[in-house]
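#data-curation
PF: Archiving a pair of folding outputs for the training set. Convention for this channel: one message per protein, sequence first, structure tokens after, nothing in between. First:
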Amino acid sequence: MSREKLVVEVVAAHNLMPKDGQGSSSPFVEVDFENQRLRTFSKYKDLNPVWNEKLVFDVNNPADLPYRTVEVNIYNEKKSGNSRNFLGKVRIYGSSIARQGEEIVQLFTLDKRSLFSHIRGEISLKLYITTQEEQSSQSKPVLKSTENEDRSTTHVQKQKITQASSSQLMQLQQQQQQKQQQIEQQQKQGNIMEPGVNEIKPVVIAAAGPVPLPPDPVGPSFHHVVGSGGEFQLKETNPSLGGGMMGKDKTSSTYDLVEQMQYLYVRVVKARDIAISGDSHAEVKLGNYRGVTKPALEKREWDQTFAFSKDCIQSSMAEIFIKDRGDDYVGRIVFDLSEVPRRVPPDSPLAPQWYRIEDKKGEKVKGEIMVSVWFGTQADEAFSEAWHSKAANVHGDGLGSIKSKVYLSPKLWYLRVSIIEAQDLVPGDKGGTMMRFPELYVKVQVGNQLLRTRSAVPSANRSISNPIWNEDLIFVVAEPFEDYVVVSVEDRIVPGRDELVGRVIVPVGSIERRLDDKMVVSRWLGLENKNYNVFGDAKVGSSRFGSRVHLRMCLDGGYHVLDESTMYSSDVRPTAKQLWKPHVGVLEMGILDATGLLPMKIKEGKVGSVDAYCVAKYGQKWVRTRTVIDSLAPKWNEQYTWEVFDPCTVITVGVFDNCQLDRSSGVNNIGGVGVRDSRIGKVRIRLSTLESDRVYTHAYPLLMLHTSGVKKMGELHLAVRFSCANMANVLHLYSRALLPKMHYICPLTVNQLEVLRFQAMNVVSARLSRAEPPLGREVVEYMLDHDSHMWSMRRSKANFFRLVSVLSGLIAAGRWLETVRSWNRPVHSVLFLLVFLVFVAIPELILPTLLLCISFTGMWRYRARPRHPPHMDTRLSHAESVYADELDEEFDTFPTTRGADIVRMRYDRLRSVAGRIQTVVGDLATQGERLQALLSWRDPRATFLFVMVCLISAVGFYAVPLRVVVGLWGVYALRPPRFRNRLPSPALSFFRRLPTRADSLL
């Protein structure tokens, strides 16, 4: 007895949506039935394709066919292999499939897959059941994967190949094994793999009999395996924190989150009774390492400390030489390292002593030098200011740029300047003799920030010389206030030519401060034309006809001035210190070391090394570790502490290569023009994801996105601990507003916040660049995510799929309900119907049952809670599957520097993406306008029908209990498919006929 087959004949499609960015599509059809999936060939750039292909499926149980469905999906095939765009779908119930000889060609309208799908068109199909042996015409096997465009799959599932041979299958497996070996070799070498390079695509092999293909050992892409496997993952470490003496050693009380590093400290203070010329210096020598002090000149005082790492000590003696100008030998002293004492903080520093110097023969001579020598750790207060043995080639001002420092951001304020009106203005008219209305506007400048009001429009009740603006202009200023507010009233004579009417200058320090939304007192200030009028100082020059301007200025201390992205904010306190609440906890971080850093410099024509340092930013406190010279595995082991005022904040740690030191030429380019430190990577840790009082020790991957793709630059090892004294205070914060109340009482617009954040970043970078050593602008911009607002196709796709992931739960619930309604599993459908009727009969159980389910679900998921802090996810960021042109566009400057053809192509692509968004927004607006049209009488007949139905329904609902109505509606909606009509319901048809305001669009 021959088995029954299902034949799906794909005839043609009509009026498909263009999805390739060039006004067309290359569609193919994919049919899914009972875990079998087949597809047609693609039609290149054809919106009305004709296939006439037969796809044949096995029917396992013909009796269950009426309860099965056939899924038909149309996709646009991209050039990049497995990538595709959704063009529409059709779901066909098995009860509507005819027998052979009774089949007809049916026309189906394509449906959306989700709310954000943008599709159109129809497809013609012929479906029938046959017992004859049918051959699939020109069909391809397809991987059985999820519906998320094959992006969320990490392993290629088993696929069914209808035509294959065993010999060719073995050849395919050998090719896959060779490909896997190549990938493993490239992974060990640390090569960058571009998206799509290592994809192993399914191959159709002609032979007799179906042969299953084993799963692909490497998955669809090398990046997916690496991103999901280990290279880009967070790794837990087990360092010996506190030297393995947690709670036993004194240093563990303050330095317990880093590994102890032993150093030999040599402090050279001064010399006396030595006959030298006055340009003397001291030299400390320890084996192959030596350190030289600055010239002492006449006072013969150096007071300089040297630190030699114990791991690098290759001698048992430490020598200190005194040399005169020209390295003339004067004398020396020698210390035996076995007799050097060990200092343990918080013990006081070791007091320096006078030592007699000796000549080359070892005999004591006249002269003494004050020195102290001891063994200590990085917990010693001399550590941060000491000259380190690893910095042997750095001298002079270069030493300052490699030492660890703590910086404080300036306190930022919002300066609000309200331009109310002006009186007795005398605008000039030198553009000609014709009469004209003056275009008066006010321009306000604070530092390098410049804003202007709109032009005042003359009115019937106001004269030209007394305009009104009533506009607020907001600026960012920093303490101490050194800037001035320059208010200029100007008249636009012709486009591109403005004339000054009057000007006044106000020092920022004299402006009133406010902590709430109460209005401050406004002032009338006189305007000067040439000799500026400085408010608060003596009046210079004569006023021009008594012109004056009405201003209200204040420094708003109730806002938090955002200088970093709101998503990664490290501080949400208001500016005014009077509004601060007590801190709720302490954040401690040990910056341990980095491993596997990639070389960043070319040294003497060869690949060199890296001079790495870390910068950590939380709140107003920035910390910078010392620079470890010439090491691909630098060890810092420095510990820092911050006060925490809100746990829902983020600390950012960045790693940079110090490019201020040009070791190849022996020159320290401190403050050199155009010298910028290179980025190596950064890590973000949200404090709310950390358990209280737990020490987290992890190796974070340092990832950078380059024009060639995502690249792992190394790993950063951190130890983090968040401690809170009172958990109740922390939990109470979750019920309070995140930002200060002024952000909600007098909110700022999104555009204002973005502009002000950019200005705040400029102010912070300018202040930190004036520190010593300076913290470069490139470092501040990278830490504050200055380019987060720039357009990126990669980020747009990542955010879209984040939204899809958020909605996936609702979509899955909808699919499950559709499965219940379709009665594919009659047992499940019957149970759901019974539960529904119980809830209808006893509605009091609905809310308690729902809350209990949510509570038990949360308790059940407690076992699978995340055990590690979050980190950079390359798959979530779409950094592994991004195209080369999209990367080039993301790294392009603003304005662009690319050619006209590339810009035109990108502009067309952007128009295509924006067109989809525009259509989705239009569809949502259309549905809302149809709801409004129910009672707007735009369609009198439709509104009349709706009103009459509502009247009749009101009487019916009054007479019939609500639970009976809901029960009957549920039973009707859950009826088996054989009792349903395939046409839309009358209510849905009525709703789709309602008018919208789209008819009025041009």
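PF: Second:
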Amino acid sequence: MCLVFDAGNKFVWSGHKDGKIRAWKIQQNLEGNSFKEFFSWVAHRGPVLSMVMSSYGDLWSGAEGGVIKVWPWESVEKSLDLTPDERHTSALSLDRSYIDLRTQVTVNGVCSISNTDVKYLLSDNCRAKVWSAGSQSFSLWDARTRDLLKVFNIDGQVENRVDLSSLQDTSIEEDMKVKFVSGSKKEKPQGSFSFFQRSRNALMGAADAVRRVAKGALDEHRKTEAILLTIDGMVWTGCANGFLVQWDGNGNRIQDFQHHSASVQCFCTLGSRIWVGYVSGTVQVLDLQGNLLGEWVAHCSPILKMAVGHGYVFTLANHGGIRGWSVTSPSSFDKILRSELASKETLYKKLENLKILAGTWNVGQERASHESLLAWLGPAASEVGIVVVGLQEVEMGAGFLAMSAAKETVGLEGSSIGQWWMDNIGRILDEGTTFERGGSRQLAGLLIVVWVRKCLMPHIGDIEAAAVPCGFGRAIGNKGAVGLRMRVYGRAMCFVNCHLAAHLEAVTRRNADFDHIYRTMVFNRPSNLLNAAAAGVSSVGQMLRVTNASGINSEEGKPELSEADMVVFLGDFNYRLHGISYDEARDFISQRCFDWLREKDQLRAEMKAGKVFQGMREGVIRFPPTYKFEKNQAGLAGYDSGEKKRIPAWCDRIIYRDSRTLFAPVSECNLECPVVSSILHYDACMDATDSDHKPVRCIFSVDIAQTDDSIQRQEFGKVIESNQKIKSLLGELCKIPETIVSTNNIILQNKDTSLLRITNKSGKDEATFEIICEGQSTIKEDGENSDHCTRGSFGFPRWLEVTPASGVIKPGHIAEISVHHEEFHTLEEFVDGVAQSWLCEDTRDKEVVLLVIIRGSCSTKTGSHSICVHNSSSSLRVNSKRNDSDKNQANVLHRSASPISGSSNVAEDLRNLHMPS
């Protein structure tokens, strides 16, 4: 469920669904690195949802129900030092050594923190704090004392769950002391609270819980999905509605941004840059102020995780794909690189061709005969790779429409009649042998289904569905659209089945229906069969349905349909012939004068005026109007001759757009114009008599340009190696700014504070710094140092506070870091979260080595400087081996500045932590 890497001790801690935490040791041997389980123990009753190692080396873990446990470094260290024969005792020892933070902040049955699952834990090493987060609340803790500092919600409002005004008498203070300091399990003095006080607190807790549940239902779209600490000490959270929220280290909400409408899934950071991964597959790059530097579509499916290493940002998608992107992009050399690669396009461009059959039929609540289906789809499907079928009026009626709307609200769809149509068309296409059903979507009477030829399946993926109701207040599916989006040879194709407003005079309403569908269609549901690997994202997709109901990118105003490489609209658009009588229309049809009839076509006129289907085109209509016919009557004599005598019309249409612009229809297929299509056949099946509409079909020949990734990578490498300007720019970006520190030795006594100054000598480049504890030792009686010891994850000793431990230094500026000695008490052992001995002061002198790691704002290369910090436990006890000048320099910084050296071993280890294996 979660992983923590202990860089200082080369351990990996893994939290598991069975509640166990496992320790894995990385060891070097002659055959390379080995990675074996060291020991494990049961940490929680349920899954371990989150883990983090604090700046003092403690291991924190979060679980369901708001449970947070801390395993002190002292206890963990004992287990790490055990011999192989003794490790069987480590599980018992660690299992009993935890501190239960939830128990510590519970008073009279009312807990100060939320009981929602602890999904995220974050160590603020800059200020020695720990953040714990659920979906809609946060708790802020002191990493050194493990005290609760603050509880607040997603709006930044402080939540006080315990009424402390009634806890003023001495006996209650003693009760608190027993609970928080000694951790004893003795009974609390029951006389401390009156019956009414206890009842009041219980009612407050119950009311608070009810309030949170009600508010949580409203704030579901704002729930936290990711959390990140940046080098400047700010904390960023990403929300399900795409919002990015910036917090300071004290839990104050600073500002928020929304650069994308989809749900945030993950973060990562390096230097002064932040990368954000979204459920839409988009990656964005921000600076530390939240300004958008760049964005691109990294994957066709949700991005689950991101990590920085070895000069790249790596993204992991829901379908298992991993890609790497340069940490320097966007930058000035991108344009040069893009131009160089474009000139070599012929080397790595591949062209693919396939045929797509699109068919539409308003079936009028009837079931077609096998002969009609065969005549409509059979011969045409034999030569295509993809078949897309859109049906209208599969099933209607007020009861069915109401039931369908109710099912949609809980994420259900489909009907038995819809299934009948899919099964019977599948038989015509030899489903299971020749074709595979790729996906489907039904909204009331609307149904769209896609079949893919088996040999083409490896090149098809990420099939997603969507639905937009347009009837009865934009809520009922008697009118509207259903759509499928899929990747074909890496290119996005969308197929949309529409049923627009009826009647001759409703042209404006039809235009409005199309506009509503185009703007608001959001593809968010993983489909079946071909996209089985995406089943795990269904909950995210459902959330996206809520959070992005408009379907419009709030920043750019781009509908999802506009970003596809090819879009095909098919269906009963209901546009009629205007300015012509029934008899005139019948005469022209009998004479097959379709050119003159097209001049009377409402859809043609509206498209020409730019009012609907903007930027799209249609094949030449050479078939009779497909509406309206008497059922079961063959031939053109079957047009409606009843009382209403509806004028025949081309209601059933197929319209499309590819990568070409409307004004450049002959564009060559290339990587800049990757999908170019032409129409091979566009006709109606006049032999089908099962409905009052005739089915229509269209066969597209589609050329698709794709990249041969292996060849492109080779050419990419050649450009990087040969282009001197790119090499120069990359060198500038990776350069470490010239930086100096004010001292290499600090001596502290009781509660002393010294200032460490880091100066950025560069005149134009920002520098970032991070301070870790490389190791510590204890001064023995004879003045010798004990063995070198590294706390977990390069953690600080508890007697030392370094603030801030990371930050950004502007060109020519100086960062001042406070190095403070704090009273420190050792805590020998915990059993079931309860201290087994009183706190005692450690009076031995100690030394630590602080490592200042410097890098550029966008560089993985590091420089470092070591600083020795000596803690003299008493101002009267100074080691005899120290000379008088050392004594006089206690609490005083050396004035000689020391330049940052090249990467030390530890700094190099840190850089290599994120390198791909």
